[in-house]
Request: fold
Amino acid sequence: MEIKPTLSPGELLQLMTLLRDVTRVVVTAHRGPDGDAMGASLAWADYLRRIGKRVSVVLPNPCPDFLKWLPGAQNVLYYSEEETRDSAVKAIQESDLICMLDFNALHRLQEMSSVVEKSKARRLMIDHHESPDLNCAEMIISRPEACSTCELVFRIVYQLGGFEQMSRSAAACIYCGMMTDTGGFSYSSNDPEIFIIIAHLLTKGIDKDKINRNVNNSWSENRLRFCSYILNEKLNFYKSRRASIFTITREEMKRFKYIRGDAEGLVNEPLKVRGMRLSISLREDTEKEVVRISVRSVDDFPANRLAEDFFHGGGHFNAAGGELPFPLEQAVKTAEQAIEAYAHLL
Reply:
């Protein structure tokens, strides 16, 4: 099976012209970078370096610990970290092009957005979220039908003729992003071409089993006990609505020596219960006076619409997020109101 072109001839020419005319490039992704954001950023940066560009990967804040093994992750500049902030700002200010990956609007960069807005660099967006802000980039490659931004990066590099030179490291980053954004290919992955892409990545010598272990089997004892505690003590089912809510407080995170990423994937667990359609997690942020919201759903329930309507957020159809102001108790009431408002779809 062939891999169909992602870009039209006009888009391909526009992208090639854009890349031809720049030297210094910054690649960035959304705050709280997940496997797809990290994988896409590192793989796209790898391609750009191979065509002679000077590239810096600059992210608003660090990725979870279980993604720090990704090839190239050790060289990322983080805006939130005091020791790399000046370098991050300098890279953005001196860039000719800023590549915005895995997010659809500048506000997803949060505190770093003002620095990007002030930059005179041209902007390119590569993303798979719905409703991109059409004013935030000179060229927008938005494909909501893609399973991940990593899939989109692969398709673009392939169409640009860069697959033969793709490194094993870049292939591993792309596979990681595709795997994590589909829950190990358990959702959003029915397109047969996804597995043709995986077959291509395997020809680069990646060890997909090891990538899975690096992501999913690298828990600490504290993380295991933390997740067990949350599911046992904090999870509330709203059985008549086929929905659930759990909360995580700062005190609980401190008690279990929480580190970034320890709650990753936890919001999916309640959906393993037969008949459940909606899961909502509410976590007190450790840096700002906000409650972070994650929403997951199955089948035809629109998690993104619920997040937009009640949590100032958005995302994918079955995976979305947002935030609410303190206190946590009020955020729980808002989540319960959201469940009731969408009861006709549950």
Observations:
- The first strand starts at residue 24 and ends at 29.
